[in-house]
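Shape matters. As here.
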Amino acid sequence: MGENNSKETSLKIGGLNSSQFIVPIGPFHPALLEGEFFKLKVDGEKIISADIKLGYNYRGIMKLAEERDYWKNIYLFERICG
């Protein structure tokens, strides 16, 4: 008598379905050794796409080391390297 012709509709916002999310990781994260940035587009546990930006983070360490003496540099490098 009454057929159910309802089609599943999904909400799209900025090219994403309602079940998809963008997960930014970085540029500083405990799991990353260097400054890197990952922007993952995920659908549940499946990665749909990834935007990866690898690069160098200038922190001015060399400039700081040039202006200090040897003993002060030991403390500086110890703070930076752990």
About this structure: The longest helix spans residues 70-81. The two ends are 73 Å apart (CA to CA). The CA atoms of residues 26 and 32 lie 8 Å apart.
